[in-house]
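[Q] Does anyone have a clean structure-token version of this?
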Amino acid sequence: MAKALMNYLDPGAIILGVEAGNDREIIRILSDRLHSLGYVKPSFAEAVLAREAELPTGLPLGSDNNVAIPHTDPEHVLKPGLAMATLCKPVAFSNMEDPDEKLQVSVVFLMALSDKDQQIEMLQEIAMTIQSAEMITALMQSNTAEDVARLLA
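[A] Here you go.
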């Protein structure tokens, strides 16, 4: 279904049931994980936060389980990768369609891609994957990275 996602999603970068206080905290948690795995430069987290403030990535799905797909410029990336988190309690992200509106987000995909074309392709892949409410629910109910891999395979 979403094989391209699994080509980039390192099992070590899947964090399930995270307790984060806000959007900045979950972006830092995922950025730190990608940094520790060698995917991004130390500048990555701040660059993602700056981009998120200018061009938010909260994606409304018409339910309480919205998704955010933060990312930044390729210059902060060492090698392409993707991190994913499910949240115990949703956190507010600004709506990509209306930055003044806050969305409650339960699943975050953090993209670290080394070229703009990859970013567009990955955004499309993620968008196709999350169109199913059943998929979002299944991701949120996953207990292990292996569960996530099975869903996205």
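[Q] Thanks! Anything notable?
[A] Strands lie at 9-18, 58-59, 66-68, 81-94, 102-112.
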